[in-house]
Design brief:
By secondary structure, the chain is of the alpha+beta class. The chain has one domain (5-105): HIT-like (HIT family, subunit A). The chain contains three helices and five strands; from the N terminus they run αβββαβαβ. The protein has a five-stranded antiparallel beta sheet, covered by helices on one side. It is globular. The mean pLDDT is 97. Bound molecules: adenosine monophosphate and zinc ion. Residues 5, 16, 30-32, 40, 87, 93-96 line the site of adenosine monophosphate.
């Protein structure tokens, strides 16, 4: 999508601190971190939100989760624990409408979330 911030990051048009990537997914540091480790994992292809992921996106969703695990290992938080979040829609608090997983760690996470 031409006017989408995360499409532009995914294609390299807008710079980001890349943590890892492959042909389908990109992980980069969140610009406004809410924890010592705060990384976003996106598909390079535009998908607006979880609600727009269809039956043909099963493999992509799996790759996003797999990338989240690799990010946690690479950032050294896998053993201590971390949180993976997909804010979805208005009540979910989504502000960027290109699907992304937040990988948060490096401190204890509270429950319930705000
Ligand atoms: P959400 O509220 O779940 O849609 O999350 C959007 C996230 O994108 C927020 O945590 C923002 O801090 C983050 N964000 C916005 N613009 C950028 C950017 N240019 N680079 C990295 N992260 C960004
Ligand atoms: Zn997009």
């Amino acid at each position: 999508m031409s006017d989408c911030l995360f499409c532009k990051i995914g294609s390299g048009q807008i710079p980001a601190k890349v943590v890892l990537q492959d042909d389908e997914v990109l992980a980069f540091d969140d610009v406004n971190p809410q924890a010592p480790v705060h990384v976003l994992v996106i598909p390079k292809r535009h998908v607006s939100a979880l609600n727009d992921a269809g039956a043909g996106d099963q493999a992509l969703l799996g790759r996003l989760l797999e990338a989240a695990i690799l990010v946690a290992r690479k950032k050294g938080i896998a053993e201590a624990g971390y949180r993976v979040v997909a804010n979805t829609g208005r009540d979910g608090g989504q502000t960027v409408f290109h699907l992304h997983l937040h990988v948060l760690g490096g401190r204890h996470m509270n429950w319930p979330p705000g």
